[in-house]
Amino acid sequence: MAHRWTNDMTRADATPERMFLNRRQIIAGLAAGTMLGGLPGNARAQDALEPNSWEEITSYNNYYEFGTGKDDPARYADQLTTEPWSVTIDGLVDRPGEYAFQDIMSEMTIEERIYRFRCVEAWSMVVPWNGFELADLLDMAGVQDGARYVAFETLLRPSEMPGVARSVLDWPYVEGLRLDEARHPLTLMATGIYGRPIPNQNGAPLRLVVPWKYGFKSIKSIVRITLTEDEPPTSWNKANPREYGFYSNVNPDVDHPRWSQATEREIGGGLFSKRKPTLMFNGYEDEVAALYEGMDLSVNF
Ligand SMILES: Nc1nc2c(c(=O)[nH]1)N[C@H]1C(S)=C(S)[C@@H](COP(=O)(O)O)O[C@H]1N2
Ligand SMILES: [Mo]
Predict the structure, then answer these.
(1) Which among 139, 144, 213, 271 is most buried, taking Cβ atoms within 10 Å?
(2) In CATH, which superfamily holds the domain spanning 47-292?
(3) From atom 4 of ligand 1, which residue's Cα is the shortest distance away?
(4) Interval 75-87: pLDDT, tens
């Protein structure tokens, strides 16, 4: 599959996790074009960020189905059965159906994407994901003309999810994107981290990653994708519409009602590290600003 976007970050050679990367999963063209410094348009000095460690990425998580503590998912999510797994793709598509995870994987091209990840709680990481573009999966199902949004749903299996009995959210966890956001080349369906299968606490076996939006848009362990005409409901918006909008684009100028979004705490930065400024669209402004032309981003937050 052709690449419509190239990484703008490089991995520090010294990162120990480098050894775990499964080179066979990474396309030679992408690797050659980006890991050696990048193409001129994408090579920005401030973007040469180092990914967080495997340990950091897999032990500090939000996955409320397993509890609201940051260490609950790593503790409880190994109970989750992820094989077999299938994703129902329905709504306004030409080929609706239940797609087996393995059949999806055999059709998709897995690449590596090193993305900034910014939680609405004002912490951040850098994650080297493996995955495929959501646009390719949508093409597999064939999006029909009337479709304008994409709705996503997480597995709901209370017997394996100790958090669902106790939390503030309605289950199953649901999310949504406008179709043009869903088709954007940055929008990834992640199936791995550091070349290994994605751990349960990070959303196995496949989760959404939308790097210019707050982390809660990146819905985990997806079992249903529905193409719709109308804007779909989203879990955090249902829970607190004043605090969480449908768009939820990272924006340092639009504060959360209870805290500033101007800066962020880097996970792994150490107890006394300085907060760093949050970037517009989490640093992906050049790539995505056009999607929101003419919109008031403080109204459509
Ligand atoms: N199903 C589901 N998806 C979810 C969440 C959740 O609680 N349940 N939490 C979201 C939030 S708030 C964030 S910040 C990210 C965290 O992803 P990570 O744990 O892989 O860093 O997952 C998002 N996806
Ligand atoms: Mo989050």
Answers:
(1) 213
(2) Oxidoreductase, molybdopterin-binding domain (3.90.420.10)
(3) 219
(4) 999 999 999 999 9
